[in-house]
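pls design
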């Protein structure tokens, strides 16, 4: 799957977001090492701390779908309300847990930008640090 298809999938996921409070819709498309795509959208809650981001929902989809295919090659993140739309800090840590190698976002012109994961979460903490 090419990057444009990944971003299109993230945009489609964003359309399904439940964001009645912020009206900030986010979608994520995770590409696993096997080539499978898993989608997630943000789900808000009146108790804001219980809101779950699109990236973490996509990771949940990936984890429940397969015990063998849990290595993230890349994640594309999209929001019609913001460009670029990078993963928040909590999502970066969750993506790190599953070996995310690259993050793809689009700018306000629709151009895609690729970032090695180490660039958006330098000096990260992972299982090997325990």
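designed seq:
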């Amino acid at each position: 799957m090419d990057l444009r298809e990944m971003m299109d999938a993230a945009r489609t996921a964003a359309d399904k977001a439940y964001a009645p409070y912020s009206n900030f819709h986010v979608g994520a498309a995770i590409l696993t090492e096997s080539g499978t795509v898993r989608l997630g959208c943000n789900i808000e809650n009146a108790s804001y701390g219980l809101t779950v981001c699109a990236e973490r929902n996509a990771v949940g989809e990936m984890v429940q779908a397969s015990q063998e295919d849990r290595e993230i090659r890349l994640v594309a993140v999209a929001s019609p309300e913001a460009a670029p739309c990078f993963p928040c800090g909590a999502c970066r840590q969750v993506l790190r847990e599953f070996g995310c190698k690259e993050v793809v976002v689009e700018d306000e012109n629709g151009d895609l930008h690729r970032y090695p994961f180490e660039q958006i979460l330098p000096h990260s903490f992972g299982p090997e640090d325990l």
